[in-house]
Amino acid sequence: MLLPVPLRLIGRLILAVLAVVGLAGLFLALTVLTNGARGGLAAWLTAFGAGVVAALWRGRGRTWPGRLWPFAPVIVAAVLTASVCVPTAPTTRQYPPDLPFVATRHWSLSTGSRVAVYRYPPAAGALRHPTPLVYLHGGPVRSISVLDHRFLRLLAGQGYDVYAYEQPGGGRSDLLPMEQYTISRSVRDLAAFIDRLNRGPVDVLGFSAGAVVLTRALATPDVAVHVHRAIIAEPGPMDGPTALISGQQGRPSARGLVPAPTGPRATRVPRYAVALGLIQLGLLPPDTSLITQAEGVNAFKAADLGSDTASAYCARDAGRIPAEDTAENFSFSAAASLRIMRTIKDSPSIASELKRSRTPAMLMIAECSSQVRQWETTILGADPAIERTQYMPGVGHHMWNGLDDNNERAAAVITAFLQSEPSPLRNYPTRADIPAFLRGHR
Question: What are the transmembrane regions (predicted)?
Answer without folding.
Answer: 12-33, 39-57, 69-89
